[in-house]
Design goal:
Shape: globular
Oligomer: single chain
Number of strands: 21
Largest sheet: 7 strands, mixed
Helix content: 25-40%
CATH class of the largest domain: Alpha Beta
Length: 437
């Protein structure tokens, strides 16, 4: 019995998705619930599991195709077993009823997908192991790959190996010694200054690679440009002495981890400090809707997470009601699932305020961009020991610059500055977050 594998019902806010990559090929055995293919939306990567066990008989759509809910992706022969050594059926670019326009879309998607593949090792027909970039340079310069010594793993020939081969070959060529030929000619020409000949360039091929944006990257670009174009963005700064937070974490890190099964990090302190500041300055937690200001009476804090596909912002719902342990567990879970591509769209939707931490990458100072339609974002940065004056004495303390980028249409400078001061006070005296003062 043949079973159709279809695009699952996409969330209401998502019109279509892009078929990223198949994990199986026609003729392969599949088990029930095994992931067959990845579909990328503007926000997340969706996995399409096998509905039954059997053999993948046919693939209807190839990598790079734009798909919508309900489209047939593949056909599975239920209960069948793969035959060793049997040739797999060809992958169909589209179903038999597809229009010529649909076929053209699939073909273009396949080309775009191929151009975006990483520089992985391929087996050249001549017998040498060449990366795609090395193969391209070799073909352009008519170099036999077997004559190039590979410096990579298992004798892999890289682009630089081919470039070095060409450079050494040019240097050994008689044509590369015009000065010597001029000297041998003698006469008046020999008395003239020698012609300047630049050394052979190691860059024999000025290659470029055009790679289409992923849907997530394109969506990030769109949102960032939208925020810059529609909001009056301004950034204010302050600095925080994290000595008290460091001491608290050092004192309770072991019992905290033993009791809750998670490490006591910095983000929970910052999330709690922001909640206290947002309570005092509700405009920072508000958003603009047309000619109205919407004041949110709840605190959904987005925490920016960096992944290989781009920056995403999962949301801590009702952060004011979460404990330090709840926040640390949620953030750890978000980060792991975001990088695995299994986070849900619902977890990325909404949010009234965002925190981003460029300090984990070494950033000392930055001006983050607001995550529209929110009106403000807090930027954390690198913790650095710096001399500061406390009670008339110069001491060394772990200091961090913090930045608040905000929409000046609804948030005044006074509110932004006092918001940062409140965050600073809560972090420098964490008891304030317990006593809510």
């Amino acid at each position: 019995m043949t079973i159709e594998v279809r695009v699952p019902q996409l969330p209401e806010s998502v019109a279509d998705a892009t078929l990223v990559s198949w994990h199986k090929k026609p003729g392969d055995s599949v088990v029930r619930d095994e992931n067959l293919v990845d579909l990328e939306t503007d926000k997340v990567v969706l996995e399409v599991p096998a509905p039954v066990a059997g053999v993948l008989k046919e693939i209807r759509l190839s990598d790079g195709t734009t798909v919508t809910s309900g489209q047939i992706l593949a056909i599975i022969e239920e209960g069948a077993a793969a035959v060793p050594g049997a040739s797999a059926p060809a992958i169909l670019a589209a179903s038999s009823g597809a229009t010529a326009a649909a076929k053209d879309t699939v073909a273009k998607g396949a080309v775009a997908k191929d151009s975006a593949k990483p520089d992985t090792v391929k087996q050249d027909t001549a017998g040498g192991k060449l990366s795609p970039a090395a193969k391209r340079v070799a073909e352009e310069n008519k170099v036999d790959p077997k004559t190039v010594a590979g410096s990579g793993r298992d004798g892999r020939v890289s682009k630089s190996d081919v470039v070095n081969y060409l450079t050494s070959k040019d240097a050994a060529s008689p044509a590369s010694a015009p000065a010597a030929a001029a000297a041998a000619a003698g006469g008046a020409a020999a008395k003239a200054p020698a012609q300047f000949v630049p050394a052979p360039s190691a860059r024999t091929a000025r290659a470029e690679q055009r790679v289409p944006m992923t849907r997530l990257r394109a969506r990030i670009a769109e949102r960032m440009v939208q925020a810059q174009a529609t909001q009056a963005l301004l950034t204010s700064f302050n600095e925080v002495d994290l000595q008290a937070v460091n001491e608290l974490r050092a004192r309770y890190k072991d019992p905290f981890e033993k009791q809750y099964g998670v490490k006591l990090g910095f983000m929970s302190f910052f999330a709690k400090a922001c909640v206290e500041a947002l309570k005092k300055f509700p405009a920072v937690n508000a958003s603009v809707d047309g000619s109205d200001i919407v004041y949110h009476e709840y605190f959904d804090i987005g925490v920016a997470v960096s992944t290989d596909r781009g920056l995403i912002v999962p949301v801590l719902r009702d952060a004011d009601q979460l404990s330090f342990a709840d926040i640390e567990k949620s953030i750890g879970n978000f980060a792991a699932r975001a990088r695995a591509g299994s986070i849900t769209i619902e977890e990325l939707t909404g949010g009234t305020f965002t925190i981003t931490n460029g300090g984990v990458f070494g950033s000392l100072l930055s001006t983050p961009i607001v995550n529209s339609p929110q009106s403000a974002i807090l930027g954390m940065h690198k913790i650095q020991d710096r001399p500061v004056v406390i009670d008339g004495q110069v001491v060394v303390r772990p200091m961090m610059y913090i930045a608040l980028t905000y929409d000046h249409r609804i948030i005044d400078g006074r509110e932004a500055v006092q918001f940062l001061v409140t965050v600073k006070q809560c972090l420098e005296d964490p008891a304030r977050m317990v006593l809510h003062i």
